[in-house]
């Protein structure tokens, strides 16, 4: 295992844990969020569920081996590690594009916007679940 892999994964885990900690108990939030974000010719979609169930399906359609000094295989791994650590369900898809840098950047923008929408306060103190909890079974 190389330093790039560990550094990327560790950063994603730390950010995911920080997100979960900062959110606290998910009361009074929208819970679901989605976004479509472009960057020039690239278009990405992200859908988030602050579910307490870690899962990620990431399809970026990247075709290059590297973007700068970062291996392209590390980009979906980062998003998957973040979702697992944050205990969220995350779907990210690049819908179109040909510049791998634009496709990756549009994906991260879409994730950020979707997360912001999912944690938007709804004016209640309710847990947004028919079960009354958003924890893993």
Taking pLDDT < 50 over at least 5 consecutive residues as the criterion, the unreliable ranges are: none
The major sheet is characterized as: 4 strands, mixed
Terminal Cα span: 32 Å
Which bin fits the share of residues in helices? 25-40%
How would you write the strand order of the largest sheet?
1-2-6-3
Query: Could you tell me the radius of gyration in angstroms?
Result: 15 Å
Question: How does the overall form come out from the CA principal axes?
Answer: globular
Count of helical stretches: 3
Compute the average pLDDT.
91
**Count of β-strands:** 6
Name the helix and strand elements from N-terminus to C-terminus, one letter apiece: HEEEEEHEH
Percentage of residues in strands: 15-25%
- Specify the structural class: alpha+beta
List keywords for this structure.
single chain, 137 residues, alpha+beta, four-stranded mixed sheet, two-stranded antiparallel sheet, 3 helices, 6 strands, globular
Structure description:
This protein is an alpha+beta fold and 137 residues long. It is 39% helix and 24% strand. It contains 3 helices and 6 strands, in the order H-E-E-E-E-E-H-E-H. It has helices at 3-23, 74-86, 100-118; strands at 32-39, 42-49, 55-59, 66-67, 70-71, 89-96. The strands form 2 sheets. It has a 4-stranded mixed β-sheet. The longest helix has 21 residues, at 3-23. The mean pLDDT is 91.
